[in-house]
Amino acid sequence: MFRVAVVNAKGGAGKTTVATNLASYYCSQQLKTAIVDYDSQGSSTFWVSRRPEKSHPIQIIPAYKQPKHVTANWFIRPERDTQRVIVDTPSGMDVIQFRNILIECDALLIPVLPSAIDIHAVARFIAELLLQGKFKREDGRIAVVANRARKNTLVYQRLEIFLNSLGIPFIATLRDTQQYIKANEEGKGIFDMPASAVAKDLASWQPLLAWLEQRSGEADD
């Protein structure tokens, strides 16, 4: 079972967008997939509830509303034979509080927007992961994704320089496009959409998917 956590303490970075679209990709590959939703807004949970009946099923585990009479380990346990688990973390996430959850994950994806505020926030968050969470760069499980970005802008160029300075893989740039919104309204990801309509978006995901595939192979070894 390969686990991916989408993390960033700052709200609005697009964690749920990355989590749900990654789930739609794994489903398109016929992999049994679950999302563990820790965000109190329940956005991933709502998205799964809107999935068309003909779409590949995704198990949703609304961890943010765990009943008091059951243990956390039992409540967040994916169904048998689940192959991919995506953890959608909340805004304001406490690294120490979530460390045991994150340490079980094979990959941590950090989406960040191209703005000065987001760059500042993600720098602090990564420092917390490394210092408080005691994650190590050399473990190779952490990677950064530029989200809702336009490569021909000055703010993106500043973001790119910053991300390349971190010593952590900067693996992909996801486009600023309405296709994600259109797909989300239908309970879909871009991997559920006609390929001809989202060709550029699918291409922007390929480096991210290749990195995860490599991590998956290493986790299986």
Write up what this structure looks like:
The protein has a single domain (2-211), classed as P-loop containing nucleotide triphosphate hydrolases (Rossmann fold, 3-Layer(aba) Sandwich), CATH 3.40.50. The chain is built from eight helices and seven strands; from the N terminus they run E-H-E-H-E-H-E-H-E-H-E-H-E-H-H. It has helices spanning 15-28, 43-49, 72-75, 95-103, 116-131, 154-164, 179-185, 199-220; strands spanning 2-6, 33-37, 59-61, 84-88, 107-112, 142-149, 170-175. Helix 1 (15-28) packs parallel to helix 2 (43-49). The radius of gyration is 17 Å and the shape is globular. The protein starts with a strand and ends with a helix.
How would you describe this structure in keywords?
Rossmann fold, globular, 41% helix, alpha/beta, 221 residues, seven-stranded parallel β-sheet
Rg over CA atoms: 17 Å
Total count of helical runs of at least 4 residues? 8
Strand order of the largest sheet: 3-2-4-1-5-6-7
Number of domains: 1
Give the termini separation: 13 Å
Assess the beta-strand content as a share of residues.
15-25%
Find the count of extended strands (DSSP E, 2+ residues).
7
Assign an overall shape. Answer: globular
Largest sheet: 7 strands, parallel
Assigned CATH class: Alpha Beta
Q: How confident overall, as mean pLDDT?
A: 91
Q: Any idea what the CATH superfamily is called?
A: P-loop containing nucleotide triphosphate hydrolases
**Model regions low in confidence, pLDDT < 50 over at least 5 residues:** none
CATH architecture: 3-Layer(aba) Sandwich
- What is the percent of helical residues? 40-55%
Briefly note the structural class of the backbone: alpha/beta
